[in-house]
Amino acid sequence: MIDLYTAATPNGHKASIALEELGLPYELHVLDLTKGEQKTPAFLAINPNGRIPAIVDREAGGFAVFESGAVLVYLAEKTGRLMPADAKGRSRVMQWLMFQMGGIGPMMGQANVFFRYFPEKIPAVIERYQGESKRLFRVLDGHLREHEYLAGDYSIADIANWAWVRTHRWSGVDIDDLPHLKRWRDAIRARPAVQRGIERPAPAVDLSRDGEAAAQRFAEDARKLMETGQSLKPGGAA
């Protein structure tokens, strides 16, 4: 049994999707970020950085893993699935995983802050992060023109990138001109395990259903949290 400590954010959904895909039994512990539950001593003992997600593997003597990419690698290696065993195959997966961790996540995260949350609208900054997010989307689109998935078979690299790309509307970035990225996004969204994973926990905002009015209310709450040093993301803005 694995304990999953998480919230409805792209990084949080990486872990829940992987657990659902792998069919591993897990217990869901949803942290209320608005109440600072990620900063309690009990959780900091699991993740000293005070961020979600994190897991505790009871079968491994209560072994804790934090950082979403590290969680994905641990689960893949634990089960021998969603990542090839050979050196080249593993490297391909790790390259695209690092692409998300070092590029897609940080750039979209900053786009979210300045496009949705920051009290002052600074066009040059918004354009900078939205533009870089779009550039990275084009990289994905170009690669997916000749590949069904990012690194051979479906893998943790796809899970990591998809969990963020699906929220592109929250970052204010359009992908209508990226047909290969859209094909990949929709194909992964149709997977039953992915559908279960993005409901564990359910997102606070889904722009495809809730619309901009709900998004604005969510963003207002997020701005208030920023003033106290907290952070909040919708996790379901596709």
UniProtKB/TrEMBL annotation:
Source superkingdom: Bacteria
Alphabetically list the UniProt keywords.
Transferase
Q: Where are the transmembrane segments?
A: none
InterPro entries annotated for this entry?
Glutathione-S-Trfase_C-like, Glutathione-S-Trfase_C_sf, Glutathione_S-Trfase, Glutathione_S-Trfase_N, GST_C, Thioredoxin-like_sf
Molecular functions (GO terms): transferase activity
SUPFAM superfamilies for this protein: GST C-terminal domain-like, Thioredoxin-like
Keyword Transferase assigned: yes
Which residues are in the GST C-terminal domain?
86-205
Residue ranges of the GST N-terminal domain?
1-83
User: Is Transferase a UniProt keyword of this protein?
Assistant: yes
Write down the PANTHER family for this protein, in alphabetical order: DISULFIDE-BOND OXIDOREDUCTASE YGHU (PTHR44051:SF22), GLUTATHIONE S-TRANSFERASE-RELATED (PTHR44051)
- What is the recorded name of this protein? Glutathione S-transferase
